[in-house]
Amino acid sequence: MLRRVTNSRFMCKPARQAGDRLARLLPADIDPAMGRVAVAWSGGADSTSLLLALHAGGWDVAAWHVDHGWHEGSASQACLLRMWARQLGVPFFCQRLDTSPTSNREAHARIARWRCFEGWAVSQGIRHLFLGHQADEQAETVCLRLLQGAGVRGCRGMLRKRRMGRLIVYRPWLGVRKAVLVGILADHRVPWIEDVTNEDLSLWRNRVRRRLFVGMRETGVDPIELFLRWGSVAERLFDCLHERVASVPLHRYAAGVSVAWSDWLAAAPPVRALLLQEMHRALFGPASTPGRRHIELVEHWTAQGGHGGLDLSRCRLERRKHRLHLSARVAMLR
């Protein structure tokens, strides 16, 4: 569905004017000299405003679009985005996915999108990817992670900058409310595409946005402000815990990672939980982390004296003399 548009042209002059205003909202530490960058462009207001801001600000930018095929008009929308990109003079790359799983669609979609992004990053020599997530979505993310029982690492929400595989990912709009971005586009009559899946209440994020947050507003509570504040508290707490974890020496070796048993016992339970996550990430990479059930199991095992060992999905935790070892189970089988 199109918003704020009376024809199919992108209206380049209004788009440039909107881009000039939007570029002033970008964080000062983002440098156009970083070379060619890409924007994950769904066509929505958030990613459209980001594409216009970077283009107006002098970045050499490409638009990457993944068509999940979740609704009948998605192919037509991809063609429209291609035309808009041509009018702007922005290179456009699109990939349509063949499958649409009926369960856990959001997780499957994320994995499939990143496969496309990684492929484009290699073929185009791009190292920096910009995502259009804004402050409202950050608040939704914090809320969702609280509901899922995440620890302080997860309850920080999305990070403004992080490395994901080959790409360094930036989310420059995390400090900007959606209404600000939409208002600028509307002021200049710049069109965007409203994703029809935003109405799908089978998706958890939409239920939070359209039911929970609406109910909170009816009671006089601003859910965006509330959950952004909770995310900031989680960020400060994480930094405090991480300082303590960083003071514990980890020993990495071919088959695993270990820590002195005395250091493990001396740490407070929240520090041990974060230390276990760091050990797990050292084994399996930054995207991997043990779940809450495993963390609670390890804490109970520690309280009982830490005798023997524990199997934790892909790895095993065990005490050997004066050290605590976390080893990959594949390595153990060899």
Find the structural class using helix and strand composition: alpha/beta
CATH homologous superfamily title of the largest domain: HUPs
CATH topology title of the largest domain:
Rossmann fold
What is the distance, rounded to the nearest whole angstrom, between the alpha carbons of the first and last residues? 55 Å
Sequence of secondary-structure elements: EHEHEHEHEHHEEHEHHEEHHHEEEH
- Main sheet: which strands, in order across? 4-3-2-5-7-6
Largest pleated sheet: 6 strands, mixed
Do you know the CATH architecture of the largest domain? 3-Layer(aba) Sandwich
In angstroms, what is the radius of gyration? 23 Å
Write the layout of secondary structure elements.
Elements (H helix, E strand, L loop, with lengths): L1 E2 L8 H12 L13 E4 L4 H12 L4 E7 L6 H15 L3 E5 L8 H20 L3 E3 L4 H13 L4 H4 L5 E4 L2 E4 L7 H10 L4 E2 L10 H15 L4 H24 L4 E3 L2 E5 H6 L2 H16 L7 H12 L5 E4 L2 E6 L2 E6 H5 L1
Helix pairs in contact: 1-2, 1-7, 5-8, 5-9, 9-11
What's the short story on this structure?
Helices cover 49% and strands 16% of the residues. The chain is an alpha/beta fold.
Write structural notes for this entry.
This protein is an alpha/beta fold. The protein has 2 domains: 2-215, HUPs (Rossmann fold, 3-Layer(aba) Sandwich), CATH 3.40.50.620; 248-333, 2-Layer Sandwich (Uridine Diphospho-n-acetylenolpyruvylglucosamine Reductase, domain 3), CATH 3.30.465. Helix content is 49%, strand content 16%. The chain contains 13 helices and 13 strands. The strands form 3 sheets. The chain has a 6-stranded mixed sheet with strand order 4-3-2-5-7-6, with helices on both faces. A 5-stranded antiparallel sheet has the order 9-10-13-12-11. A two-stranded antiparallel ribbon has the order 1-8. It is elongated.
